[in-house]
Amino acid sequence: MWLNFSAVVRRDLLLSFRRRADVLASFFFFVLVVLLFPLSVGPESALLKTIAPGIVWVAALLASTLALSRLFAADFADGTLEQMLLSPEPLSVIVLAKITSHWLVSGLPLVLLSPLIGLQFGLAGDALVALFYSLLIGTPVLSLIGAIGAALTLGARNGGVLVSLLVLPLYIPVLIFGADAVVTQIMGNSGSAQLMLLGAMLASALALAPWATAAALRVSVE
Amino acid sequence: MVTETSPSPKLVPTAGSRNRWFAYASPAVFYPLAGKLIPWFFALAALLTCVGLYIGFFIAPTDFQQGDSYRIIFLHVPAAWMSMVIYLAMAFWAVIGLVFNTRLSSMMASALAPTGTMFTFLALWTGSLWGKPTWGTWWVWDARLTSYLILLFLYIGFISLQAALDDARRADKAGAVLALVGVVNIPIIYFSVQWWNTLHQGSSISFTAAPTMVATMLWGMLIMALAFWAYSIAAALTRVRCIILEREKRSDWVRELVEKQS
Q1: Which of A210, A222, A216 is nearest to A102 (CA)?
Q2: Touching A: B residues 84-103, CB under 8 Å
């Protein structure tokens, strides 16, 4: 099972690196959206510091929903997905491998860039650490839950907007606790309670989302 | 009201056979049954609404703190209860359709969704109207209100997903997966006032203790809840009859029905 998992991860990473433009597009979208806010609300540093956690988190959500269509679309188009459904390996493992490689190329860059963005908004010290950890734990949850939406809307009309409509309500708890972890840290208290709740969400998403995604794939590829 | 003949004998098993009730899983057999039930449930809903609103406006006493503005509770709470019950019913039928591959169960789930959306919107709107004079604000982002707003978007997402997929069976099953994923929101809404510090008040009614409100208020709310329940059943049955006619339009019994109409 581990061989299967690592083979799919390696394959998807290789495919993503061959199409670097697709991957970088959602990354640059994240950076652009974050940049729009200081331009629109003005450069007053106290205001920026207050809204920074919310902005970074919302931009991460939007970038995540944009990147979701890449998860299964290419494999669906050329028939590889059908072969994955027919394979004797458990579909949940294959799905988890695809989600992992998807997070590595679209979620992890956001996490690594976040301290820099936090600095731009005037966050410092513990708040930056809290922002980093909240995104580190939260973005995999976004990829896991988003995969369910991507699987349900595979090949559907208006799929991009539809997947956002389906998945953003489910993202809201992650957003609330992720942003709150940073806000609490900025105010001087420890954001660890929110981070632990995020960790709980990650644990349950890891356990349940691949199974739900596999069920959704079987529904969509019939 | 469309008059229709009962389905041909071969569709209904003989009396005394074990799976007599399962015959109603066939859209052709269920269609006339639903047709007979609808007027009764609409009548019951109308009657209970009159009784409930009479109790609410004329019999229940004026509240000590809120005066008469609290009377919107007779719409707000029953609508909120119904929206959650309908979501559970919708998820239940959708999962039955997914697991047992029955068409009618999924049609029932699709029929329940718009009614649930309407009640969710009604509860949100009446809650807002109630919040302004009592809390001083139209809205607050506490746990109860936020999770309830998520319920509205879950309903809208369910309807949009089924609308976007052309293949009816795929739409049924995809909606079932989505409804099942969203059902985790219902306990969160219900327990949110216990788990978090919310502006929305806690439960006055529980299964384990006596209610903390006046008996007439409680009875008014319960009767309005039953009224909304009867209405939901009537509306869902009406809608499912339309869905049955659309989905089964190529079958003989629908063709005969349409011919008889014209």
Answers
A1: A210
A2: none
